[in-house]
Amino acid sequence: MSVATYSLPPLPYAYDALEPSISKQIMELHHQKHHQTYIINLNKALEASTKASSEGRLQDAAAQLSAIRFNGGGHINHSLFWEGLAPSSSPDSKLDAAPKLAAAIKNTWGSFDKFKEVFGTALLGIQGSGWGWLVKEAVTGQLRIVTLANQEAVVVGDTPLFGVDMWEHAYYLQYLNGKAAYVENIWKVINWKTAETRYIGSRDDAFKVLKAHM
């Protein structure tokens, strides 16, 4: 029985391209070490689960579910995260690159500044490690801000438009315990063009990066 394996997607920009918002050192460690480790452990868990299932050892296959969920979530989240960033010098990092999404944000929160405030409060309210996401709801198509613990991922219906990694490895080497400064500066490198594409496209389109690197 063949097993799906995943590989590390290359960044769509240089490691120093997001400076000064995110340093080259952080990007290298975050991408090459942290993300790569999630992929290695995901592939191991998938292989072990598939082998156990093929041999009728359901108990051993089930034992891999938590590892698949955690490491699979880590791979999903980071793959979406990298695509959701762009150099501050790029036109893709300007809100003008997302006219339909910007209108929906204004309609939902009243203004972009209010949206930033609400999103920032949600991010800084995460206890421990986790992620904050702007999502498009599956049924209503409305926008919603969600926070998820650890490496939980937006995998149940909603479409992730962009996310912010609030694990310490995403900012600590540069910002130390200054999470608020990290949150403020990451707005300068959000890829609004990608967010717009995810907003107007299908949910499957948002996750196509995963299939591209199997």
Structure description:
It is a single chain. The protein has about 210 residues and is mainly alpha-helical. Helices cover about 50% and strands about 10% of the residues. The protein contains ten helices and three strands, in the order H-H-H-H-H-E-E-E-H-H-H-H-H. It has a three-stranded antiparallel beta sheet, sandwiched between helices. Strand 1 and strand 2 form a beta hairpin. Helix 1 packs antiparallel against helix 3. The longest helix has about 30 residues. It is globular. The mean pLDDT is about 95.
In a nutshell, what does this entry contain?
The protein has 10 helices and 3 strands, in the order αααααβββααααα. The protein is mainly alpha-helical.
Q: pLDDT under 50 segments (min length 5)?
A: none
What is the residue-averaged pLDDT?
Answer: 95
How far apart are the first and last residues' alpha carbons, in Å? 16 Å
Task: Kindly state the percentage of residues in helix.
Answer: 40-55%
Could you tell me the radius of gyration in angstroms?
18 Å
Order of helices and strands: HHHHHEEEHHHHH
Q: How many β strands by DSSP?
A: 3
What structural class is derived from the secondary structure elements? mainly alpha
The major beta sheet can be summarized as: 3 strands, antiparallel
Number of helices: 10
Strand content: 5-15%
Structural shape: globular
List keywords for this structure.
single chain; 214 residues; mainly alpha; 10 helices; globular
Itemize the secondary structure elements and their pairings.
Elements: H1 24-54, H2 58-62, H3 65-83, H4 99-109, H5 112-124, E1 130-136, E2 143-149, E3 159-165, H6 172-175, H7 179-186, H8 192-200, H9 203-206, H10 208-212
Antiparallel strand pairs: 1-2, 1-3
Helix pairs in contact: 1-3
